[in-house]
Design goal:
The structure is a homodimer of 345-residue chains.
Chain A (H helix, E strand, L loop, with lengths): L17 H8 L3 H8 L7 H14 L5 H8 L4 E6 L7 H14 L3 E6 L4 H13 L4 E4 L10 H5 L3 E5 L9 E5 L1 H14 L5 E5 L5 H16 L9 E3 L4 H12 L7 E4 L2 H12 L6 E5 L13 E4 L2 H16 L8 E4 L2 E3 L11
Parallel strand pairs in A: 1-2, 1-3, 3-4, 4-5, 5-11, 6-7, 6-8, 8-9, 9-10
Antiparallel strand pairs in A: 10-12
Helix pairs in contact in A: 1-2, 1-3, 2-3, 5-12, 8-9, 10-11
The structure holds a DNA duplex (16 and 16 nucleotides).
DNA sequence: CTGAAAGCGCTTACAG
DNA sequence: CTGAAAGCGCTTACAG
């Protein structure tokens, strides 16, 4: 017969357990459980003795053990691109508030726009048995989540739709927003309009490019290849793209920037230019109104995106919902000056 | 004899367990465990059969159960003020990268600058048995953590020191940074300099005010009470504070802003003013260089703050460290124009 | 190379 | 009002 398994080398020192509390208070384990969880059916005197033992021992319930028995972890996961990006901070914060209202903890992680890392993170969260998963996808194939979803992990995609699986998604009207932003430039007399966006495999980038094309087509303006540049949002790449569009015999007179990272770099390029170039950016950003000229943007509400997705997730956890749905939130054009400059050159 | 306890109403559906995999593969539980964990001592043929069963069943190891047995959760917690604040995004991201390098997951939560909420969050993380805790404190009494720290939860404070307990802390040189920023204004001829900061109970706010006082004292300039305003960083409060200092018979000719939230609001107030007022802000922020004038700041490195604290936490988890230490990181004055304006009025 | 038994710290479902 | 037994899904420490 094997010896009693020795206690694992724990970093927690030897934390007291309910058993220890029970022994000290001279009661049964279940009574301690009742007191700890505020369940009824314990006399005031017994409760006092248990409380004293808890404090003397410095006991804190081990929620890992609790989770194992109960089946729900009261936690949800959020996989996003990069917490350092000002777009995701408010989004994550909004999700956290909804989670908190439901008594759940939020675990978020950054995919760094790497599909492998997205998968690794999402599955690690599943292994920790989060009740639900919010994903801002980096990749375009999410079949790896099928067993998890089938096993009951509520899943909602945010900002970009899932790839090759049917799932809830909450996103902004990227096509319509870009279209209206570009139409705004056209209305102010521009015809040679550049588009600088994120990598084309990213859904939002592709949709915004499509919005640009639609607006140009609506106005009957043929688009030159040299006017469109998609790629990483690294400042160096964006700067070069902008400079190319702005030079040569037929430079663009206006630029539509595909996201906040791009807009900021383009603003820097334009600031060094002697002639005025119009600019509309997708995504609002702090201080956009204080620049000269103020930067006209197509704003989306990151907080609302997160809140809406988290609400949907918890309704799924409540078992209220059935079929996956696509929820599209409107964008808003905010004019501040840069988008109203007339064409020059 | 009681019946076998029924399976709890799980939201996970009925996920397959190692036992199910073992049954399907026709092997013992331990063999499945070996395969899942990549342990040696399994023949290629057995391993293949187990892998097939895993895939057929859609098995994923339950890390909650694993954690319970092993004692370490491979996760750390980060309690910060507000994830939507651009200062904390990069800090959190830096911590995440260090955690990832150590194979740990990061759980972060916002205290919303509320001491009760900080405590609630920190203790919830302890109940989930995070291996370590990184705290940007909202409160000034952390004795509630004593039982946890004694039980082995590695704890490192970030940005602000712990209150009433002895613990590691990694912070910026708030006093020295503010002092140099104010000295810079004095060097440019200012004597009537205002200070607008966060609530005085927040350590960084108090230290930066102290730096302001030191610089003024160094220069032999007596400070008027009307020149100092501390409180919430709500735009309305800050705006009023700035406007008061800037009006009256003896208005200030320069303002030192105590953090990034304050700076942004002060910039807005100054933009509407007809006369130039000098400004130096604590904390750098995006686009500070593109404003007219560019905003001179005392910059701290949020990413480095997070990285340093996380490194320290993991060294504590390795058992390398003993006595709590205070690590102070230098700040850097970045001149961009607003801090070099001469006094007017 | 393989697996049965015991246990991690809780909760469930009972019985008294 | 109270508590003993069984079990959540794994890993540990063995023995074969």
């Amino acid at each position: 017969m094997p010896e009693t398994a020795r206690r694992p080398e724990s970093r927690y020192g030897n934390r007291p357990t309910m058993k220890d509390v029970a022994a000290r208070a001279g009661v049964g384990l279940k009574t301690v459980s009742r007191v700890v969880n505020g369940e009824p059916g314990v006399t005031a005197d017994t409760e006092r003795r248990v409380q004293e033992a808890i404090e003397a021992l410095g006991f804190r319930r081990n929620d890992s053990a609790r989770v194992l028995r109960k089946g729900r972890t009261a936690s949800i996961g959020l996989v996003l691109e990069d917490l350092a990006d000002p777009f995701y901070g408010p989004l994550s914060r909004a999700v956290e508030e909804v989670a908190r209202a439901h008594g759940a903890l939020l675990i978020n992680g950054s995919s760094a726009e790497d599909p492998d890392r997205e998968q690794e993170l999402a599955l690690a969260l599943c292994a920790r048995r989060v009740d639900g998963l919010l994903i801002i996808p980096a990749g375009d194939d999410h079949r790896y989540l099928e067993p998890e979803i089938r096993a009951g992990v509520a899943t909602v995609f945010v900002d970009r739709p899932a790839g090759r699986i049917d799932a809830d998604v909450v996103l902004s009207d990227n096509h319509g927003g870009a279209r209206s932003g570009v139409a705004h430039l056209i209305a102010h007399g521009h015809r040679r309009i550049g588009f600088i966006g994120d990598m084309p495999r990213i859904h939002t980038a592709a949709e915004r490019l499509r919005g640009y094309r639609t607006a140009m087509e609506d106005a009957g303006i043929p688009v030159a290849d040299a006017w469109m540049s998609l790629g990483v949002t690294d400042p160096e790449r964006v700067r070069r793209a902008a400079e190319e569009m702005l030079s040569g015999p037929d430079p663009v007179t206006a630029i539509f920037a595909g996201n906040n990272r791009v807009t900021v770099t383009v603003v820097r390029v334009l600031a060094r230019l002697s002639r005025p170039v119009a600019l509309v950016g997708f995504d609002d950003f702090e201080l956009a109104d204080l620049l000269r000229p103020g930067v006209t943007v197509v704003a989306q509400d990151a907080g609302r995106l997160g809140r809406t997705a988290a609400d949907r997730l918890f309704r799924r956890l409540d078992g209220t919902l059935v079929a996956p749905e696509r929820i599209e939130l409107p964008t808003r054009l905010i004019t501040r000056g840069s988008g109203e400059l007339p064409p020059v050159g």
